[in-house]
Amino acid sequence: MSTETALRTIEHHIGGELTAGDSARTSVVWDPATGEPQAHVLLAEPSDVDRAVKAAKRAAPEWSDSSLARRGRVMFAFRELLDRHIDELARLIACEHGKVVEDAKGEISRGLEVVEFACGLAHLLKGEYSEQVSSGVDAHSFRQPLGVCVGITPFNFPAMVPMWMHPVAIAAGNTFVLKPSERDPSAANFVADLYREAGLPDGVFNVVHGDKVAVDALLDHQDVAAVSFVGSTPVARYIHERASSRGKRVQALGGAKNHAVVMPDADLEYTANQLTAAGFGSAGQRCMAISVVVTVGNVADPLMERLAAKAREIKVGPGLDPESEMGPLVTAEARDRILRYIAQGVDAGARAPVDGRELEPSGGGFFVGPTLFDHVKTDMSIYTDEIFGPVLSTVRVDSLADAISLINENSFANGTAIFTSSGHAARRFERDVHVGMVGINVPIPVPMAYYSFGGWKDSLFGDHHIHGPEGFRFYTRAKAVTTRWPEGPSTAGGDLHFPTSV
Q: Which of 183, 416, 418, 430 reaches 20 to 30 Å from 222, CA-CA?
């Protein structure tokens, strides 16, 4: 039997059961550390998507009508199960994504925080009440679920990003269909099993694996009420336009080119440590990774010396190796794309004190070493494009004003940071920079679950950020009720004038 035919097949999880459905097409799930295939994942046909959406639609009336107490108990049980199985899930992610196990545990922990936030659903879903808005008239409001909601999520955080979506949507009384990345699909099925063990009714959470065929079927399905997406800017724009044109509520988070400004008064050892972690952690495959360092004034040379030394010290290896600090890229295509960008940067005249092409990994795999560029110009592809790999580019400017202008001229506006000892500089930066999430001596300013995550400009399409308070607003709609209870029978006629409050 060949290796190809011996590979396991990853199925869909619909209505509480694993199913192959009508899927005849498959995609290879690679082991990024060895470069060998490890599984096949089914790619859904429109009929499979329809089956998942219908299962969610059937489950919606009972789940939306369930008490807040029941929903809360399920979410608390899911939280405990997720925490109990964090090691197992992290190893699963490391095997398919390539990130090191401790990094995978970190993303699960951040997702777990959203689950914990969603456990407060009884408070978060409270409405408002106003007595005697007019004579004998009261008013109140409450929020109701939308129905079937969809999440389309990327490969780089197979646990955390979906958990920005489905715990909030489900706690709010919706049902959910998740379309995870076909590159690392197993985490989604693992989570579906935990939900079922937690007592979530069948059909409330479903998983369909697939490619653009499945995505388009979800965007077009008449029974889908809302779509959440995280991925690249071109796809985010496409998702937003297509789903919105079909009357769906959409939040589509796009790409990033996150800048970190380093002021001359910054603690350089601390700053270099933080930038190294933020630039090369998870092989740079994070939407909140720092990809551009903006040095102000004379800080560039001493900072570059430290960054180069630390980049060379990073231990690159398989994600399952406890000695590894940075793993491989997720696929061979991703590796080759990064290598092309490094070559373009060198050819364009940027200086590369650390060149990731020099890494010589053993045992195959999709490895690229940390790469550090200096003297980068804003017209170079390594600056203009979202590389999504372990490439850290440095741009030199003269002043904080120049740094802020540089960032504000960029079409991406997901996250940014400043390293400084000056409260004045930090306050000016956070107020003047046109970016959705800002870190002050914090390189990756991902908000806690009780704040909302979202960028500006080409990093977000739609009116709502993801998770946090805005997440509950996105997954519900408000209903306002005006009430009068007349005392006894009335002989008074109706007033044909437009009603006013008296």
A: 183
CB neighbours (10 Å) of residue 117?
Answer: 23
Distance CA 142, CA 18 (A): 36
Do the beta carbons of residue 324 and residue 100 sit within 8 Å?
Answer: yes
The whole-angstrom separation of Cα 50 and Cα 58 is 12
CA dihedral 460, 461, 463, 468 (to 10 degrees): -40
Measured CA to CA, the distance from residue 138 to residue 134 in angstroms comes to 7
CA 279 to the chain's CA centroid: 17
User: How, if at all, do strands 437-440 and 476-484 pair?
Assistant: unpaired
| Helices 86-97 and 68-84, axial angle in degrees (round to 10) | 70
The partner residues of 18 in beta bridges, in order of sequence, read 13
Residue 348 contacts residue 17 (beta carbons within 8 Å): no
* C-alpha torsion angle, residues 95, 97, 98, 100 (rounded to 10): -90
Per the CB < 8 A criterion, the answer to whether 290 and 391 are in contact is: no
Query: What length does the chain have?
Result: 502
* Sequence-ordered alpha helix ranges (H) in 98-151: 101-118, 121-124
The pTM of the full predicted model, rounded to 2 decimals, is 0.95
Helix orientation angle between 186-197 and 68-84, rounded to the nearest 10 degrees = 130
Report d(CA 154, CA 151) in Å as an integer. 10
Instruction: Note the pLDDT tens digit of each residue in 273-300.
Output: 999 999 999 999 999 999 999 999 999 9
Q: Is 247 left (phi over 0), alpha (psi -120 to 50) or beta?
A: left
Contacts of 362 (CB under 8 A, 6+ apart): none
Alpha helices by DSSP H, listed for 198-290, are: 212-220, 233-245, 268-280
Amino acid letter for position 158:
P
From 485, 456, 478, 451, select the one nearest 466 (Cα to Cα): 451
Q: Which fold has domain 3-254+459-480?
A: Aldehyde Dehydrogenase; Chain A, domain 1 (3.40.605)
- Token pair 């398989």 in the structure block, residue: 318
Topology, domain 258-440: Aldehyde Dehydrogenase; Chain A, domain 2 (3.40.309)
235: tokens are: 């796809």
Known catalytic residues are 287
Give the span between the Cα atoms of 110 and 468, in whole angstroms: 12
**Helices H / strands E in the chain, number of each:** 18, 23
DSSP-derived pairing of the beta strands 36-43 and 25-31: antiparallel
Instruction: Give the domain ranges of the chain.
Output: 3-254+459-480, 258-440
